[in-house]
Structures are given as C-alpha cells and as structure tokens.
Amino acid sequence: MKKKLAIVISIVLVFATLFMAACGGNTDDNTTKDPANSASEMIAKVKVGTGGNTGTYYGFTTAVCQILNTADYTFEVLSTGGSQANIEGIEDGDYQMAIVQNDVMNYAYAGTNGFASQIQSFSAIGCVYPEVCQIIATKASGITSVADLKGKNVAVGDAGSGVYYNATQILAAAGIDIDKDINKTAASFGDAATQLKDGSIDAAFITAGTPTPAITELATATDVVVVDLGEEVISKLMTDFPFYAKYEMTAADYDFIAEPVNTVAIMATFVVTNDMSEDQAYQITKDLWEKQADIAAAHAKGKEMTTDVAVSAIGDVPLHPGAERFYKEAGIIA
Q1: CB 159 within 8 A of CB 224
Q2: Given Cys at both, which of 3, 20, 115, 267 links 102, Cβ 3.0 to 4.6 Å?
Q3: What are the tens digits of pLDDT across the range 2-27?
Q4: Do 124 and 165 share a domain, yes or no?
C-alpha cells in the first residue's frame, strides 16, 4: 500500500513540475529582465516624442519616421514639451523613442539639472545633427549682446526643457541670473515667435536646428536679429560645459543674417526605451544611417547627419545594445 502511495505521489509531483514549467512557474522574480539584449518581439507602433509642432525636432523626426517605417513596425510622431518631457515620457511608458538634446539626456542619466533622481530607462541610438543655441531679439529692442538682456522680457523655453537649461547657462556665463536679472517667461518656439511679433517680449532663447521654421516665418513679418554670444561667454560656456561646441551662424542659417554670428551648439540625439529588443534597435539604427540620403532629400537636417559624431557626443548615456551592434559591424566603434 505504501509503495502504491509513493508511486502516486511521484506521478503527481512530476505533473505538477511540468505544469509549473509550462506556465512559467518560476516564482523567483529577482532575476533582471533585459529585453534589450534579447530577440523578443518588436514594438508594432513606436511612439516618438519630439517637441513643439513648429520646431525642427517635430519636422525632422516626422521625415525620418516616414522613411524608417517597415512592414514589422511603424512610428507615431507626437508633439511634446521637449527633451525633458520626452525622457520622462519614456520612463512613464508614454513613448518608446524620442529625439532629445545630448546635454539633457546626460542630466537625466545623472539625476541633475531638473531631474530629481536618475532616469536610466533609456539608451542612445545616436547623435544626428547640431542644434544651435539661438537668441532671437526684435530689432526695436536694441539688444545686440547677451549683457543687453538684463532687465528685458525674455522667453527662456518651456519649463524643464533643454532650452531652459541652455538659457540658464548662457546667461550665467555673462553674469546674469535667470531668476533675478531678466523678466523671464516660459514659452515654446511657436509661442515665443508670436510674442516677439506682438511685442510682448524683447528676446527669446531657442535651441534647434536651423533654419527653425517658427523664426523663418517670424522674420517675414518682424525685423529680428540673432544675438552674438561673444568670445568671452562662449569660452566660459565650453569650459564649464564640455558638451557645447562653437557654431558660426550665417545667411545659410537665416537669410536675414548679414554678418556671421558666433554662438554655440549641442547635438540632437535619438534615444529609445531599454525595453526595445536588440533586433529592433539594430534595425532602426541601421536604417537611420543607410537611408541618410533619403532623409536628406526629405529634410534639410538630414544633410548634416554624420556618423563621425554619432557616438562620440553621447556622453555617459550608454548605447542601446542593438545600436552598439550596428556601429561595431560598420567599424564606427571597436
């Protein structure tokens, strides 16, 4: 009798084990799931955070995503509040991909400058083009230098946006406190252009690829100038914040620029959620660079894309494993 009971118990245990295995019954959930390093199924609709719908982020990313759509997945391009909102949106699961400033993504990864804690749920696909830090002022304001902004009505970008931090740093390099020395207002590119046109502000900070549509349109109806930062401010900025690079604006940026204007630039960068599979991130990265000619034909910023800085300017943010695989295969990184 005991022998029969033991056999029955053994059979029950075997079936229980098989059932648990079939159901994924490992109750030890301490292991870290890392879909980015697997060939898990692709995200069918990739939601992409950009910026205001009159800015370069939105137009450029729309062009890119139309070209990168495949039979396996498509993209939904969304207008957002900019870099910080995009990174927080990836953290919250609202977006699976975004275009951001390379400085802001490093702030997020470190948990500084507007980020209360580290956000590391994203990784980089690659830097794509320089974003120019522009100070646009009405000619009537008489503003010709950063120092002239003191006491003026100035738009400094959406709260928490990359533009806001650029404005803070540029002003500080000129000895101006953003909270005390100007009458600041938060505004998107489009809103800032409208406020410049109606005279409610004197100047606006804009960080975007040039020509920025909102400014091009503004200049057709209002006399505006681009403010030269000056060598001293640029030198201090590049010393304090190495992600800045010197940039000379000319008539190639805006046809109303008569003489070269000295300013700085950062890099627009595509990032994705770490939950994206390695295969999908690899394909997106591969298509991004192999279809550059098509992107350049669709949007002017595509002509500025180069793999020379695709990886070098990402800072402390890691490459997504899929992107890393592409760059290694292409011989761009070892």
Answers
A1: no
A2: 267
A3: 344 444 434 434 334 433 344 443 33
A4: no
Question: What is the DSSP pairing of strand 122-138 with strand 74-78?
Answer: unpaired
Q: What are the residues facing 269 on neighbouring strands?
A: 100, 127
> In this structure, what CATH number is given to the domain that contains residue 238?
3.40.190.10
Q: Are residues 256 and 151 in the same domain?
A: yes
State how many domains the chain has.
2
Which distant-in-sequence residues (6+ apart) come within 8 Å of 209 by Cβ?
56, 60, 129, 130, 131, 132, 268, 300, 301, 304
pLDDT digit string (tens) for 85-138? 999 999 999 999 999 999 999 999 999 988 999 999 999 999 999 999 999 999
Q: Is residue 334 part of a domain?
A: no
Residue 5, in any domain of the structure? no
Q: Which domain holds residue 81?
A: 43-128+268-329
Question: Taking Cα atoms as reference points, which of 151, 157, 153 lies closest to residue 169?
Answer: 157
- In which band, very low, low, confident or very high, does the pLDDT at 40 lie, cut at 50, 70 and 90? low
Final residue before a domain boundary, out of 222, 249, 266: 266
Predicted TM-score of the model (pTM): 0.73
